[in-house]
């Protein structure tokens, strides 16, 4: 079994009309044994930028602390928030410099850039970036998430439609993956507000 699947995870980010949503499951497991049902995989960098980290739980927390620390330094020096494109290149460089002893994580980055244009991307554990204009997925449930998102996604969704779509995709996908599940959490980010909702799913 791969070290990337050791704790299990399901992550998805999706683009709407001047908004984006990012969602994850809440299960922390050791292989097939559930340890916790409120594990955090989505982290706020600033009001319009979020990062989701799928993979080994200890590396998820270590990498987030390092990214947040470096972004705080950037804010102090530049007196502004980092743009999503800049942040994704920074995460990529951070992962690549550790390529001989990598963090066992798969990041998803979602943010609102210039003119509130949504930006999403994902990358592998050594920082190879893959950009997308509709959705990106990660974690052990990524195969079923691809299928669900392909069938449900529509361009230019309003925030409520986007929430419904990403929620249905997440819940239906984790039902097909025994290493993720136990509900989910969804962040819908618009230029004016951040909507956070917790989903209830099958608890088995």
From TrEMBL:
It comes from the Eukaryota. Its main location: cytoplasm. GO terms for biological process: proteasome-mediated ubiquitin-dependent protein catabolic process. InterPro entries: Ntn_hydrolases_N, Proteasome_beta_3, Proteasome_bsu_CS, Proteasome_sua/b, Proteasome_suB-type. It is found in: Cytoplasm; Nucleus. GO terms for cellular component: cytosol; nucleus; proteasome core complex, beta-subunit complex. Belongs to the peptidase T1B family. This is Proteasome subunit beta. It comes from Selaginella moellendorffii.
């Amino acid at each position: 079994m791969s070290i990337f699947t050791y704790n299990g995870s399901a992550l998805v980010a999706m683009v709407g009309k001047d908004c984006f949503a990012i969602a994850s499951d809440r299960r922390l497991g050791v292989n097939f044994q559930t340890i916790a049902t409120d594990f955090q995989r989505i982290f706020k960098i600033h009001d319009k930028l979020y990062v989701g980290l799928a993979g080994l739980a200890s590396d998820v927390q270590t990498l987030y602390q390092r990214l947040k620390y470096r972004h705080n330094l950037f804010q102090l020096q530049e007196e502004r928030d980092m743009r999503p494109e800049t942040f994704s290149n920074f995460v990529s460089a951070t992962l690549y410099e550790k390529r001989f002893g990598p963090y066992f994580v798969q990041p998803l980055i979602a943010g609102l850039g210039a003119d509130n244009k949504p930006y999403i991307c994902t990358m592998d554990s050594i920082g190879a970036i893959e950009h997308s204009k509709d959705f990106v997925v990660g974690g052990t449930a990524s195969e079923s998430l691809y299928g669900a998102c392909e069938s449900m996604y529509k361009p230019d969704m309003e925030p409520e439609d986007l929430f419904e779509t990403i929620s249905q995709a997440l819940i239906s996908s984790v039902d097909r993956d025994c290493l993720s599940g136990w509900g989910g959490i969804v962040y819908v980010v618009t230029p004016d507000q951040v909507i956070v909702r917790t989903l209830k799913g099958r608890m088995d």
